[in-house]
Amino acid sequence: MQHPQSQLFQPITINGLTVPHRLWVAPMCMYSSVDGQPGDWHIAHYGSFAIGRAGLIMTEATSVSPEGRISPDDAGLWNDEHTKGWRRVVEVVHGMNSLIGMQLSHAGRKASTALPTRGRGYVPPAEGGWVTVGPTDLPYEPFAAPVALDHDGIAKVIKNFRDAACRAVEAGFDLVEVHAAHGYLLGQFLSPTSNTRTDEYGKDNAGRTRLLREVVEAVREVIPAEMPLVVRLSATEWVVGGVTVDDTIEVIRGLVGVDLISVSSGGNSPGQHIVPGPGYQQPLSRKIRAEVDIPVGVAGLITSPQQAEAAIVTGDTDIVFAARQFLREPNFALRAAAELGGELEWVWQYNKAKYWNSIP
C-alpha cells in the first residue's frame, strides 16, 4: 500500500544532533533505583524502546541530589557510581543505534514521597525520607512543609544541576533536559502560588524566573556547545492566579542557550482543574510554538500514529512525546511507521516480524 510521505517520520536537527524522526519517549518515573543507582531494570526498560526504534528516549526524572528525589526509589546522578550505571544504559541504547537524553530534576517540596503502590504520601525521615526544601515554607498539601532555601541552599541547587550535567556528558547522553515542570523545585520558583519570596529570587516575574535562568546558564556552560539543551515547562498551572501560557512564553523568551522546549502542564497545585483528553496539551504547544523561535515538543494522551502525525502536520508541535503508549507498546514507533509510511530500520534480530506475510 502506498502512503503519502509522513511528516512524523522526517528527521529533525536540534542544535548539533540529528534525530531520525519525531516520535520520542517521554520521561516516566520508574521508582526502581536503590540509593539512586540505575540497574538491570533500567537497561531492559530503555533497551526495549531502542529495539522499538523510538526517535529518542528520555530518561525518567533523575535527581541531581539525594534530597531532590521524588521518592527514595528514584534514580539519581549525584555521584560517580551513578555515572557508571547510566553509562551502561547509554551503551546499550547506542549499541542498537538509538539516541537517549537525560532529564535532570529536583523535586523540592514534592520530594520524599512514597511509591505509587504505597499511596504517594510523605515519607518522614524516621521512615527513610528526609526534610524537603522549597522557595518558601509553603507546603504542597498534604505533604510536610519544606524548609525555605536560603542563598547558600540556592547556590547548592545550581551546583548540583551543573555537576549532574557534567556526569550526563561523561555517561555519553545525547542531550540534557532541565525539568522545570510538574510543580517540582524549578517550577515552584516560577509560580506566584508557591513562590512568595521578597528577595531577588521572588517578588516579581524577573525574580521568580531567576533560578531557572541560572540553572540553564550553569548547565549550558558545562555541556558541549553542539549538545541540545532542553527545558520542560508546565505551560499552565490550571489554577486561578497561577502560571499561564502567556507567562510561560515570557519565561522562554528570557532563557539563553536552550534548543528545545518540552511542553507539559499542571502539577504545582492540588487545586488544579484539568479536563484531560486526547492531545489536551496541544493548544498550549501550538500557542508557544507560534510565539517563540525555538522548536517545541508536547506530550499528553497521544496514543495513535494518526494522532501523532496530525500534531506535526497541523503545526501544534515539532516533536511528539508519548509516554504510556510506549509502555503498552515498546514498538509503537515501528507500528506508527508501518501505518504512516515512514521508513525505519528494524534491528536485524527482529526482521522476520517486519512483514506480516513473511514465511517462517
From TrEMBL:
CDD domains: OYE_YqiM_FMN. Keywords: Flavoprotein, FMN, NADP, Oxidoreductase. GO terms for molecular function: FMN binding; NADP binding; NADPH dehydrogenase activity. Residues 7-340 form the NADH:flavin oxidoreductase/NADH oxidase N-terminal domain. SUPFAM superfamilies: FMN-linked oxidoreductases. Its cofactor is FMN. The keyword Flavoprotein applies. It holds the Pfam family Oxidored_FMN. This is 2,4-dienoyl-CoA reductase-like NADH-dependent reductase (Old Yellow Enzyme family). It comes from Rhodoglobus vestalii.
